[in-house]
Write a structure and sequence with these properties.
about 170 residues; 2 domains; mainly alpha; Rna Polymerase Sigma Factor, Chain: A
């Protein structure tokens, strides 16, 4: 999705709860999200479900997106995760992008591996990762809770996720 097609003022209005701006934002994002879902998911029905889930999450959580520049990555990540979830449920293959290590694991094994990856993190990375990904706190909320700057929280979160990816890839 090209964030440049979305006016900054409209995005800001949507984040503040302006329903008309939010509807227009979804209208602009929808074609690109559907196209990406069709390219990512294994079936047309799954692609429609993934696109719908991404747009629904945009509607519910637009205020949590930190900037207009981040909206594309956020939406595409939602679509990708939903395609992976649906593929696990239906057993359909996805285009090979190196993420098969997650799909090939049974739920229980994946959960145990993820728990072990979180436990293996140094405490300051673990704390930030849990606050963001489990408690769904914003970067600002985490910064206040930990007494850190936004930049420090973002750096720790980035490093924590990288370490967990490395752990899970082994």
């Amino acid at each position: 999705m090209r964030a440049a097609r979305i006016p900054e003022g409209m995005f800001d209005s949507a984040c503040r709860g302006d329903q008309a701006a939010l509807v227009r934002l979804i209208e602009i994002a929808q074609p690109d999200i559907r196209r990406y879902a069709r390219a990512t998911c294994g079936s047309t029905a799954d692609a429609e479900d993934a696109a719908q889930e991404a747009l629904w999450l945009l509607f519910r959580r637009v205020g949590t997106i930190r900037s207009l520049a981040a909206i594309s990555g956020w939406l595409f990540t939602v679509v990708r995760r939903e395609c992976l979830r649906l593929a696990r449920r239906t057993g359909l293959p996805l285009p090979d992008d190196g993420n098969d290590l997650v799909l090939d694991r049974p739920d229980l094994e994946l959960r145990l591996d993820l728990a072990a990856a979180i436990e293996a993190l140094p405490a300051h990375y673990r704390e930030v990762a849990l606050m963001r990904d489990v408690k769904e706190m914003t970067i600002d909320e985490i910064a206040v809770a930990t007494g850190s700057t936004r930049q420090a929280v973002k750096a720790r979160l980035h490093r924590a996720r990288g370490l967990m990816r490395e752990y899970l890839a082994r």
